[in-house]
Amino acid sequence: MSEKKDEKKITDQKKDMVYTIPLGRLYWGRRSNRSNRAIRYIRKFVTRHFHVDDVLIDPLVNQFIWSRSREKPPRRITIRVIRIRDNVARVVLASLAS
Fold first, then answer.
1. What is the pTM of this model?
2. 96 Cβ contact partners less than 8 Å away, ≥ 6 residues apart
3. Please, what are the domains in the chain?
4. 62-90 pLDDT per residue, tens
């Protein structure tokens, strides 16, 4: 019976999801480090939704966040989160992951 629970637990884990993360709340704080906080917020968001310890952010996601400088990150970003291993997830831009 415990084997069925373990199998169910493995199959219920998310493997691949697309999220639109609102980053507008980052505009409430100081201007000088909004892009830094956006990267930290994406990492925190993925950790919360995927229950992983390590989040690997693709360089294109980082480039997209920093494209309008440190003070003006985009208001929202659509990402695809892919679970690589049990405690590792990878974040890529949704438009490029198709």
1. 0.82
2. 60
3. 14-97 (3.10.440.10)
4. 999 999 999 999 999 999 999 998 899 99
